[in-house]
Amino acid sequence: MAGFIIHPKRHLQKLINKGEYIEAIEYAKSIEKKFESDSDFWFIFGSVYFILDDAKKALPYFEKSLSLKDDDVETLIIKTNAHLFLEQKDEAIQCCKRIIQIEPDNYEAHGLLEKLENI
Fold first, then answer.
1. Is 94 exposed, middle or buried (0-12, 13-18, 19+ CB in 10 A)?
2. 1 in any annotated domain
3. What is the end-to-end Cα distance of the chain in Å, rounded?
4. Which pLDDT tens digit goes with each residue over 61-88?
5. What is the CATH number of the domain that holds 19?
6. pLDDT for 5 beyond 90
């Protein structure tokens, strides 16, 4: 990485787009203080771990994102998927319920909630 990076989040996204996930994680760690109150940054950071099939490491980043912007349906959807990956049914149900509170017409969340509650 040569030179001064003017747009760090854009650089992070480029690393992810190129499939350089480990480098993206290291880079995100190096800039996280600068984006402490940026919910999108935490969503992106968690998504990299999720892409690498490490849902357990991804969850704290999704939670940090939601602590800054609690009505972000996209983050709630991927957080639901992380809980499902970890076989955490109750947590996935809670995410579905929150999605439905925000978007009452979200039929995917309704369908998944119904399926989970019948298991």
1. middle
2. no
3. 49
4. 999 999 999 999 999 999 999 999 999 9
5. 1.25.40.10
6. no
For the question of whether the overall pTM of this predicted structure is more than 0.85, the answer is yes
**pLDDT score of 94 more than 70:** yes
If you count DSSP H runs as helices and E runs as strands, how many of each does the chain have, helices first?
7, 0
Q: Amino acid identity of 118?
A: N
Q: How many domains does the chain have?
A: 1
Encode pLDDT of 17-53 as tens digits.
999 999 999 999 999 999 999 999 999 999 999 999 9
Among 100, 39, 33, 34, residue whose Cα is nearest residue 70:
39
10 Å CB burial of residue 87 (0-12, 13-18, 19+) is exposed
By residue range, what is the domain housing residue 22? 8-117
Q: Is residue 2 part of a domain?
A: no
Residues 6+ positions from 97 with CB-CB distance below 8 Å = 113
What distance in Å separates the CA atoms of residue 98 and residue 53, rounded to the nearest whole number?
Answer: 24
Evaluate whether residue 33 is within a structural domain. yes
